[in-house]
Design a protein that fits this description.
- By secondary structure, the protein is mainly alpha-helical.
- It has a 3-stranded parallel β-sheet with strand order 1-2-3, sandwiched between helices.
């Protein structure tokens, strides 16, 4: 796909699409490929998701899933698999910034 078709791509470092992996969510393939493309270990990465299968996928990949519920409220399983559940994307951004600062202090 091109940036003309997907204008949001200019705002991200990379993109991986389900057609590029053998198994889709809840399998971890798409997140593992994204981490490889970005050159980061999954344990160093956060995934923001609104779906149950997205949280399952990120968790199975070894990432830090952040749930921002949309249509489906968080279940007990989602609470267990998510590092945090945020009400909106701004809250998720603040959480990631806080974690980044904590990691910098520890380094």
């Amino acid at each position: 796909r091109t940036q003309e078709q997907l204008p949001f791509l200019k705002h991200v470092d990379g993109a991986v699409f389900s057609c590029q992996v053998k198994q889709i969510k809840p399998e971890p393939d798409i997140y593992l490929m994204a981490c490889r493309e970005l050159g980061v270990e999954p344990v160093q990465a956060y995934a923001i998701e609104d779906s149950y299968n997205g949280i399952r996928s990120a968790h199975a990949a070894g990432m830090h899933p952040i749930m921002v519920p949309d249509l489906m409220p968080p279940t007990e399983e989602m609470r267990e698999k998510s590092v945090v559940i945020c009400d909106n994307l701004q809250e998720a951004q603040k959480f990631i910034e806080k974690m980044r600062k904590n990691n910098e202090k520890q380094s």
